[in-house]
Amino acid sequence: MKYKRILLKLSGEALAGKKGYGIDNEVLDIFANEIKALYNMGIEMAIVIGGGNIHRGVAGSSRGMDRTTSDHMGMLATIINSLALQDKLEQLNINTRVLSAIQVSRIAELYIRRRAIRHLEKRRIIIFAAGTGNPYFSTDTAAALRANEIDAEIILKATKVDGVYDKDPMIHSDAVKFDELDYIDVLNKNLKVMDSTAISLCMDTLLDIVVFDAFGKGNMQKVVMGEKIGTLVTKKKK
Questions:
Q1: Which of 76, 96, 105, 161 is the most exposed place for a label (fewest CB within 10 A)?
Q2: 3.40.50.1110, 3.50.30.10, 3.40.1160.10, 3.40.50.2300: which CATH number matches 5-234?
């Protein structure tokens, strides 16, 4: 295996499946089984899930809602998604802990860095919920932050497409896929890999990101085994 400890970033929208909203049980099954395959390989894994299938903070504020209030609602949406994934993983006999950036002590542990690392060492999968716990920061930024805090070796960004393109491949048939990108290229070209704050943090700490198709069977395993799939965002050698 090329990587021992990883952070997996899942979008909330992906959990909605074809319905476009809520949580699709079939999609949860797909993700849980892919995660189980990594767990059985001995991978130490943390997960960050977005909340866009329930509520997006930016979308709420664009409709006139107070941005801070809307972002707090988005944090609660990520907690719902995290609990759903935890339940699915524990049905597969995988010890899982949800660590929340905001205090919801009846349903999840409060995030503490040393506690998170200890869970990983004890062969537990951890799910980071509620983003960073602060408004105006996305779950992409939370993924970059938490990955650095737990000393993850790479971020796996699971998406609906098989990598990063110069324009939306769902709309443009002539979209060109990138096999590898430098962090600064992502920022300069305004490519929608992760938001600029997340990319900048990964650039500062030289933490690689792989963007790949979440629904391709075995793709997560291929990434941790070092196979070249999707798009790698890294510091290019001159």
A1: 105
A2: 3.40.1160.10
